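Troubleshooting: if your tokenizer reports a length mismatch, compare your output against this known-good record of 178 residues.
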Amino acid sequence: MHDYSIRAASPDDLDGARALMLDTVHRDFGTGYVPRWHADIIDPAAAYLASPRHTLLVAVDPRDNGVVATAALDSRGPAHPPNPRHLAERYPSGETAQLRRVYVRPEHRRRGLARRLVEELLAFAAADGGYRAVYLHTDPQVPGAEGFWRSLGKIVHDERDDTDAAFGVVHFEIPMDR
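Known-good structure output:
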């Protein structure tokens, strides 16, 4: 068992975090980098370090100081489009803590890293004092993703039930006071 260090990302962690995120969108999502969806991956400092209401966490393997997991939070609610209008209205920007980029390298999965990172993000959101909801969406095709998020929150919309949905994304709300 590794004794991972979880911390807020520093500028020194950004190359490792970016590499992990890009690997994930290529390997797990099969989309590769799509600018309109993944701009925060290219410039995580602007997306997560510049605002005191945003954060990027990393889990670091003490054996080599490599970033093996990421998790981020920002104050942008789901945009419409591509997300359903009712979600954009229910989770407005500024009042919604959106969880993003909760990614773990495959060889480090099943060790509780994602759960620990999410707990830290929830504590960050609660400490902010301005968030009224925690929202995220996930691709249910990624092995383990849907089950993980179901263990932490509730589904608020499943696009697999929509006849006109392009992606089949599942949207969740996570209680801040877990």
